[in-house]
Here is the input.
Amino acid sequence: MADHPRLSAAPDQRRVLRRAWPHLRPHRRGIALALATSAAATACAVAVPAVVGAGVDRLLARDRAGLLIAVAALTALALLRLFLFRRSELLLTTTGERVVRGLRDLAVTRLSRAPLRFLEAHPSGDLLRRTTTEIADLANFVRGQLPDVLTVAGYLVFTTVVLLGYSPLLTVALLAVFTPAIVGVLRLFRKHANPAFAAEAAAAGTVAATYRELVQSREMLRTAGGTGYWRKRFLADNEARFRAARRSQRALFLISLSRVVQGLTTALLLLLGGRLATEGAISVGTVVVFVLATRQLFDSATQASGLVGQAQVSLVGLARLLDLLTVTDTPGPADAPDTPAATSTLGTPGAPGLAGGAGTRPEPARARSRTAGRGVLEATGVHYAYVPGAEVLGGLSLRIGPGERVGLAGPTGSGKTTLAKLLTGLYPPDRGTVRYDGHDLAALDPGELRRRLVLVPQRVHMIAGTLLDNLALVPGEPAERTVARAVDRLGLGAWVDTLDRGLHTPLGRGAAGLSAGELQLVGLVRAALVDPAVLVLDEATADIDPATAAALETALDTLRADRTLLVIAHREATVRRLPRVVRLEAHRDAEPVPQGS
Ligand SMILES: Nc1ncnc2c1ncn2[C@@H]1O[C@H](COP(=O)(O)OP(=O)(O)OP(=O)(O)O)[C@@H](O)[C@H]1O
Here is the structure.
């Protein structure tokens, strides 16, 4: 089996910000402006103790004018600080939201282009969490805590600079106690917090995935009596998440050790500052500046302790998101039609290709000539495995001529659906090639591929919306009258009339209300709207009532005219009706490769 990239449960957290830089770069001007405004606002706040200290010295010197200047400066600083804080918060939030919006768009775009194989290999709950919850957490951090992080960082730097200007001796003594102790606490915290937060995020992803599967498979679980097993599994996952959360909490507790450091530093400051003032080495005003400024310093450090924890959680989320963006940044045959590089175009020589470039709307289905690009669909020496060492298809070759009608039969699990997905380019083969009209599907323009080769799956997926919304889920967003024409052409007008509100009948999520056969009717109408040259139908295995079966047959008879048809045949009637039937045998390793008959 070829090596396929997978998401990591606990992705690398080193240099996360540097790795995120390509996504930040387009916003660098906004970021620089926000940082500069935040720094100016912090400088205003840091200047306050210095002005208060100067005011105290003027007061002690009975300098009335000097005192008034200090009071005026304090008022101006307060107003300027208010304005700059507000401005920096606004700039940070706006820029941050832009970055987050960009990341969200990119994640959804990459996921929508990701190969089917990648999507199937990951629990949808995990993908959902990375693209929604974790991005939302990031957005909340940007809005709620990032301004505080910058303010705190600014306080720490500016306060140190101001204090150095007043008394280098006292500042050095302060830093000599404060810095190593606080760095030690932060190191200890990071050592325990990084794995703890990553494990918590992974456990949360597992809980979401299990819960989602539980909801999605509710009918099967009820009927098969599997609810108890699933509930047990969910409870186990939930327990694991609870334990992971407690581990994170314990790691967060470590950060509160910084309060002990604060107490020690204040004691030292009072001892040394008081002595220097008594000896006349520094003024009383300077002691006041130190007391006020170090208070700010401590407040910032306390705030920083909480913020470091929140920042760590956000960085873990960012690392998981970057992992998703990196792993899905692999253009492949399932990519959207805006990746024309190295793709070929089907069609008669000299005729314009059917696929447009980025943003080109496809031509209306009827305006295209399906026969223009009609060709042979050929699989040669195709190998495919979902899991290493267990090939489902081991070197299969099959040729289907233009306009041929072929049935694909075989025991359950023999690989019929897998082959159908390979023949329609939904999976790239691990080895071997699938060609249509002489073109390797892997090299075809993805948009064109989707319009030429259409698979109607066994269970057609629906979205919440009306029947019309669901039928129109094809390239080109066809208008209602186009959809209605397609319905009539397939002889399905009577079926649509039996529904409450015809094409406007609302269908719930999961399309409650439509039977398996009716869902396939929806798939056939979608196929008719795409008007492909090759149609692959994976017949529904569920019982289909005679009326729906008749409607399906009529629709299929209309659809098959002038196009290649491959039916994964589960019903005897279908097998009998088709002129050629290929039988797949269950493949076992090292046995001769099954070939089409
Ligand atoms: N997404 C998947 N991940 C892992 N294994 C899979 C996946 N899909 C199918 N398989 C396995 O591959 C094998 C072939 O499956 P496939 O659905 O192609 O068979 P089939 O002939 O269409 O079966 P059926 O007639 O029951 O639909 C089976 O053993 C199946 O369990």
Notes: The radius of gyration is 34 Å. The pocket of adenosine-5'-triphosphate is lined by residues 120, 386, 392, 410, 412-418 (CB under 6 Å). Confidence is low (pLDDT under 50) at residues 332-373, 588-597. Residues 17-327 form a domain with the ABC transporter transmembrane region fold fold (CATH 1.20.1560.10).
